[in-house]
Amino acid sequence: MVVKDRGGSALETGAQVITGQLGKTIQRLRKAYNLSLSDLAEQSGVAKSIISQIERNETNPTLATVWRLSQALDMTVERVLASEDDTPFLEKLSRADTPILVSEDGLVRLSIIGWIKTVEWLQYYEMRAEPGGELDSDGHQRGSVECLTVVSGTVAVEVSGVTETVKEGETVRYRCDRRHVIRNRGPVPAHAFMVCLLKAAVLE
Questions:
Q1: What SS3 string covers 138-198?
Q2: What is the CATH number of the domain that holds 45?
Q3: Which of 109, 119, 139, 192 is geometrically suited to a Cys-Cys bond with 32, CB 3.0 to 4.6 A?
Q4: What is the mean pLDDT of each run of 10 residues along the chain (204 residues)?
Q5: Which residue range forms the structural domain that includes residue 59?
Q6: Residue 82 domain flag
Q7: CB under 8 Å to 11, separation ≥6 — which residues?
């Protein structure tokens, strides 16, 4: 008969809980940055197969592995390891905790201010575009719709060869399941908020 140490069993159970939450967190963050497993593997130095196992809760990663992944995903180790049960209903993020995406030309910055748990169907961004800045995006999944509200400045939104100018206080909605480009053609910086519905009804 084998007698298990109660303390050891408790530790093992706790480790499984943390690992399970870790896998979900890594997957949500990866999708928030629109990264494939290969992309995250390249940026973190962690093998693609290991990341896949972590996301499926099939392995207990070392702290070094968690650190590499957190660095690649621009998050602290503490936030990545935080148990979902400990997450308060009222959550406040500092500016340093808010992930930022930058366009290829370096003139457009997107702050990911939406809830990470909804990233698969709802994404919410704050956009700041310098004069001449351009955000060129590939299409999202079929039926996706994006809503853009300009707070200050002016931007031009191009979808399938059709361009609409959006000024301060105006909102434009468009299909984003195809290539879409947002440009700041004005002489001053533009500030806007974007909401992307990734599982909207298909528009025919």
A1: CCCCCCCEEEEEEEECCEEEEECCEEEEECCCCEEEEECCCCEEEECCCCCCEEEEEEEEC
A2: 1.10.260.40
A3: 119
A4: 40 44 84 87 93 89 87 77 59 80 92 81 93 93 92 96 96 94 96 87 48
A5: 6-86
A6: yes
A7: none
- CA atoms within 13 Å, Cβ hemisphere of 196: 26
CA 158 from centre of chain: 23
67 to 52, 70, 79, 86, 176: CA distances (angstroms): 16, 5, 11, 20, 34
Which tokens sit at 71? 């660095």
Domain membership flag for residue 24: yes
- Global pTM reads 0.59
Dihedral over alpha carbons 120, 124, 130, 136 (to 10 degrees): 30
Residue 162 CB partners (closer than 8 Å, separation 6+): none
pLDDT for res 99? 85
State the burial class of residue 198 (Cβ atoms within 10 Å of its Cβ: 0-12, 13-18, 19+): buried
Select from 49, 67, 86 the last residue of a domain.
Answer: 86
